[in-house]
Amino acid sequence: MIEISAPVIETEEIQAATKVLRSGQLTQGPKVMELEAAFARFCGTKYAVALSSGTAAIHAALFAAGIGEGDEVITTPYTFIATINPIIMLGAKPVLVDIDPDTFNINPKLIKSAITSKTKAIIPVDLYGQPCDYDAIDSIAKESSLVVVEDACQAVGAEYKGSKTGALGDIGCISLYATKNIMSGEGGMITTNDKQYEAITRRFRQHGMTTQYEYDGVGLNYRMTDLQAAIAVEQLKKVTLLNSLRQKNAKSLDEGLKQVSGIVLPIRAKDRSHVFHQYTIRVTDKFPLSRDELVAELKAKGIMAGIYYPKPLHFYKHVADLGYKPGDFPVSELAASQALSLPIHPSLKTTDIDYIIRTISAM
Ligand SMILES: *Cc1c(COP(=O)(O)O)cnc(C)c1O
């Protein structure tokens, strides 16, 4: 079976985790501090704050940006649900904007007409590991004084014009979930150059606590453990290597699949790097099988393909209830019906990639 994802866990991770277990210091401690310093250095931001998940990071980031009742936050309908649930939980409204068909990322040309007097923030999502068009997004954000909260959960290590994800907006959110490019099982990170955002997110992850049993507003328990941080510290040392293995696999798939008619290969937009959290193709009407038939055929032949995501977010009831209906975002809807992600993770062997190429070419 060729899996769609596989965490790279080597001696370093196991030794680091064992050391923490032996130390008895399992909760947030020195390893979390070490990870935060390393992450800030890696992303090129002044601060990094570790949290229990990428979802917690997005929630904390929006809280820090002051998002609340009656506010509007612009984002994409073509993402994981965790991008928008925190908006809704804070009492704000996600205002969805359709995507660019080439990159699957939010289409900056459509953002302006979605801005109202209530708009406070934009959450661009660096989907599949490719950064959004940040020059365009930044100029719109500046014009309307909007906070840019970057959902870089899938794109750790990717760059836009030489800057790393996490540093491309006002606050960056990164996930360390088990299937992401680097991981700690569960985990998340906020990156920012803003001292206020850093301070607020630090309090928010710890019940709003300032000093022992003194609270400055609400907060939750969104802390990362030292056990997770120890694993993530080792993973972060390997991120550039692991990403380059994904990029190498992507090149091989490009080469092998380019002659297959009816599928569209991933497009790399200019001025940025793609770290291929997913290698996502489109299966069009010209391919002999439908997308879902292809997924089933691949599975029968031992290749686990993934569908990210089978429905755009406005198809889910709690989102539709905010005033959306099918047909509202046609580019996202088409993508959800055509997208198929092939295995691309660093542990794939050359023979696995050849087998994937041969299998698809023979359909
Ligand atoms: C994984 C992911 C999240 C959430 O991260 P978790 O660590 O799983 O909570 C948010 N947004 C996107 C785009 C993701 O891929």
List keywords for this structure.
single chain, 363 residues, alpha/beta, seven-stranded mixed β-sheet, three-stranded antiparallel β-sheet, 11 helices, 12 strands, binds pyridoxal-5'-phosphate
How do you describe this structure in short?
With 363 residues, the chain is of the alpha/beta class. Helices cover 36% and strands 13% of the residues. The mean pLDDT is 98.
Description:
The protein is an alpha/beta fold and 363 residues long. It is 36% helix and 13% strand. The chain has helices spanning 11-23, 30-43, 54-64, 85-89, 134-143, 195-204, 226-257, 291-300, 317-320, 330-338, 350-361; strands at residues 47-51, 72-75, 93-96, 119-123, 147-151, 159-160, 163-164, 171-175, 188-192, 263-264, 279-283, 339-342. It has a 7-stranded mixed sheet, with helices on both faces. The chain has a 3-stranded antiparallel sheet with strand order 10-11-12. α1 (11-23) runs antiparallel to α7 (226-257) and α3 (54-64) crosses α6 (195-204). The two termini are 19 Å apart. The mean pLDDT is 98. The site of pyridoxal-5'-phosphate (PLP) has 14 residues, from α3. Residues 53-55, 79-80, 82-83, 125, 151, 153-154, 175, 177, 188 line the site of pyridoxal-5'-phosphate (PLP).
